[in-house]
Amino acid sequence: MNTPMHDSIGGVVNLQLFSIGTTVVTLGSLVLALVFLGAIWSFASMVERGVQRMAVRYKDEPWKASRIHMLSRLLRYAVWVVGSLLGLNYLGIDLTSIALVGSAFAMGLGFGLQNIFSNFVSGIIILLERSVKVGDFVELESGVRGHVKEIAMRYTHVTTNEALDILVPNSEFINDRVVNWTFGDSYRRMHIPFGVAYGTPKELVREAGIAAARQVDGIVEDASREVSVWLLRYGDNSMDYELVVWADRALTTHPARTHAQLMWALDDELVRRGVEIPFPQRDLHVRSGTLDVRLHGPDVHAP
Questions:
Q1: pLDDT of residue 49
Q2: CB–CB of 141/176 below 8 Å?
Q3: What is the model's pLDDT at position 123?
Q4: 8 Å CB contact between 126 and 138
């Protein structure tokens, strides 16, 4: 026998809220659908975390770790979509109508979801094309430069060398220019400019530059990648050179620190060989009680 309480609970559960096509959505079916969707999304997250645990085994092989990250993220999206559609269909909510789905998308886009949808699609493209991978060192047109830590549904997590976390919309990687320092070859050529005083033997400068490069771990030197010292120009106060080296991935992804290490070693080697580091000089000419100051060279004359 049904009691008044049972009747009231049944009435609340069967309360009709709205209709989707020919399906009437009640309060009970809506709550059940939300619970089911929450379970599906939680299961998708568990699948993603389970796959990503495999990446720990390949921490010394970034390209394998990035493939595992891509696989885990795509599996998560697939479970979301397939599970949601199957679950809603099982609950009696018909979402197979193309017109209904199209109108829902159009309505969502019309209410300002264009950017969210664009970033989601851009994230899928990034994962499939693998133009940017987790662990890559990238430089964006907006000036952001750092390591890619995560490619999420809406944004890409980039961490700079100063440990600053930046969330970049995925569409920026598709629509703007992106410099991927670690896309292909693991080695990159770096140029370190410096100057020495006029009169310094060129071979002495070359010897100091090569010795300095060999002091920094990660500088590559083989038959196809040589350490070079280039004489660029005759400057106002110095002979301008450039130390040209090939750096491995660790050095490439920390360009400022690598530049500082090479400059430190270069200064040590130049001082060890007695090479003078120039500084701006002036010639002073006194004429009829006036002071004429001109850029000239390393000596100071006062006639």
A1: 75
A2: yes
A3: 84
A4: no
pLDDT confidence of residue 300: 44
Place of tokens 């990250």: 69
Structure letter (DSSP) for residue 53: G
- Give the per-residue pLDDT at 219: 93
**70, 260, 292 from 149: Cα distances, Å:** 12, 25, 59
Q: Specify the 3-state DSSP secondary structure of 187.
A: coil
Environment class of 171 (CB within 10 Å of its CB; exposed 0-12, middle 13-18, buried 19+)? buried
Task: Decide if 241 contacts 198 (C-beta within 8 A).
Answer: no
| pLDDT for position 214 | 93
Please identify every stretch of the chain with a pLDDT value under 50, giving residue numbers as ranges. 1-2, 5, 98, 291, 297-303
Closest CA to 199 of 294, 274, 263: 274
Q: What is the CA radius of gyration of the chain?
A: 32
Question: What's the 3-state SS for the chain?
Answer: CCCHHHHHHHHHHCCEEEEECCEEEEHHHHHHHHHHHHHHHHHHHHHHHHHHHHHHHHCCCHHHHHHHHHHHHHHHHHHHHHHHHHHHHHCCCCCCCHHHHHHHHHHHHHHHHHHHHHHHHHHHHHHHHCCCCCCCEEEECCCCEEEEEEECCCEEEEECCCCCEEEEEHHHHHHCCEEECCCCCCCEEEEEEEEECCCCCHHHHHHHHHHHHHCCCCEECCCCCCCEEEEEEECCCCEEEEEEEEECHHHHCCHHHHHHHHHHHHHHHHHHCCCCCCCCCCEEEEECCEEEEECCCCCCCCC
Cα distances (Å, whole numbers) of residue 117 to 1, 91, 129, 202 = 52, 27, 18, 60
Per the listing, tokens 């019309």 go with: 110
Give residue 190's pLDDT. 92
